[in-house]
Amino acid sequence: MFMLFNKYSLCWLLLFLTISSCRKAAFDEFYGRPDWLESAIYSKLQEEGRFSMILKLIDKAGYQETLNQAGYWTFFAPNDEAVKRFLTEQGIADIEAISVEMAEKIVRNALVYNAFKTDRISDYQSNLGWVEGMAFRRRTAYYDGFRKEVVKINGVEQELVVAASNRNNMTVSFGTPYYVDGDNNNKYVTYFHSKYAALNNLTASDYTFFHPNVNWTDFNFMGSKVVKANIIAENGIIHEVDAVNLPQLSLDQYITQNDDYSFFRDSILNPYFVTYQPNAAASKTYEYRTGQTAQVYIKTYDPMLAFSPNNENYLKMEDNDGQMDAYTLFIPKNDVLIPWVRNVLLEHYKTLGNVPKTVLADFVNTLFWQSAVWPSQFAEKTNIHEEPARFQLSDISDKKILSNGFLYGTSKMQESDLFNTVYRHIVLDPAYSLMLNLLNKEYRRLIINPDKEFTVFLFSDRLLSQLGYLYDDRISSWTWRDRNGNVQGHSVAEPRLQRILYSHIVETPNNELGNIANTSGFIQAGDNSIPGEYIKWSNGKLYAAGNELLNQPVQIVGSAKFGNNGRIYYVDNLLEFSGESSGQAIQRIVSQNPELGRFRDYLINSTLYVAADLTIKGVSSGSSYTFLMPNNDAVQQAIDDGLLPANPLTADLAERVKVERFILYHMLSNVNLAPDGNREILSAITMMKDENDQSQIVGINNAPQNLRIVDKKGRSISVVNNTDLYISNRIVLHELNGYLNYNE
């Protein structure tokens, strides 16, 4: 019985084992690791057979498990020859002598988040998908973390635990904090691939300028060549490189460690734009990672700067925008910067501490580019002042591709429009701070244009105060005590000053005001493309319409100074505009020139004239006009030719219409005309309209000192005085030696 039982038991056992074996085979076939699946990165390096030394460094750095598990990495692996060469260059006896810290730097710097074959390595991972050919950088697994640093606070040196800011803005109220806890500020590596180069019009020289001892292939990684790309692993991609690449310093770290830039660093950047902010979240992270308790400070840069040189994250407008761009600094070395600061920046200041911080920030930002500027792109990429890098390659004495951008050490100054144009004499002189305030709101971009020539008349803070203008910088508000002693608020004072200011800026492409002390003439203020009001000068004295009305000329005082786009003159009074009405202007001009009396008589007795406020219907005080006034003989000719009735007081309706049409045809809207040779104005719109409500036009023939108006008959009528003109409130007035006929 017992033997029979054992026989049956053995049969059942064999059957169970057979069934189990079949099930396992099926399970393995369906769920098991496929034979065709590649090994993980660590194992793949072993299989390749030429990475024994980097494998030892991976072990020492503690990354064997990471690179042998599931993941999604790109690993730029230096081969054995590369590591041997590195040991020789570093004076290290053998691979065993490399410290754990250095091993970590080498491995983590070569380890890039996400797997990128060469068909995607040049593409940018935007929030909306891949952007072809726009990437040349990738985020690595390496970051600096916390460090101890001796810093001077309130003149006292202290040792602090410090972390770098990982955003560009130190003010949370702007929506982006200067530090985001949990963001390790990982460093980036830079590479140069043929696809990126082709789509961005770059050549091999853009790479070799930074790495003169490395030949460019179709794919270079930092200071090495990729000798074999796209080695497929289960958890990513391996690119074999022929050199070991250590993590690069950030721009901030490089400047900190390089005394060629010590004046810029210690006298400008650190004292005025760097602060150390205590941060509770960073302090907790530090305690968690180290087991030590300490107050952690974040090294932050002022948001007045274009970016923070210690931020590794680029602008962070998108999560991956550091893949496609980086910062650039053009920093002058000490022997270049020190004399420039002494001769230019401190021309009117005793020390840098007296220079307004806004001016210092403007200067620093002339050296900061929010984009990667390759050597062939100096003329293409601009800083936040919209200036290109005005250097030749021969001006570059130091060049580095760093972890968060490019650095160029320069043997000359950036020729900034802020400090080379006429604007320099305003921005760097504290006596003209209020004029600077007004300029920066409206016209700074105009007068820093190096492609145009300007003459600017400078009025001082003291002069504005004498004339009743006061500025309260606490509330950014102007007041003005007018000539009657009434105090006008900001809504009146600032627009008035802006209008006055525009008359102090004159585009002078032909040096028209170069000999202002010994000549006379007239010129339209402002930019020629947006002309202002006419001003006049005579032997060093200037007149705008208000000065002429009040008989208070503006006198040139002192000597002219120059910029690369013109000159400045100092003045003892303001070029004032006139507040008189159109009717008042004509009455005043007739009192000076009785030859215009008959035209005035027809006007003031017409339906166009509003006697109550001395204005002309349709003439707006905010627009520009030219009044063409036929003299007495010309009016008589118009009467003889039937265009005007003999009596300006006529009550006949048809005759009154004739008068109105005649006057309106002699009034040009939206233009100030003077015999200054401006040939760009070929026609002008009159205030007269035909029966179809269409504005009528006259032709303009403007040669220097010979202004002629062409009417509908094709007749050319001359302005009588071509060396002077009458000016009023945005109105220019002329005597004509004939009349304009509005009939075909």
TrEMBL record:
Signal peptide residue numbers: 1-25
Domain of life: Bacteria
Annotated keywords: Signal
Record-annotated FAS1 domain positions: 38-245, 419-575, 583-744
InterPro entries: Adhesion/Biosynth-related, FAS1_dom_sf, FAS1_domain
Protein name: FAS1 domain-containing protein
Organism: Sphingobacterium olei
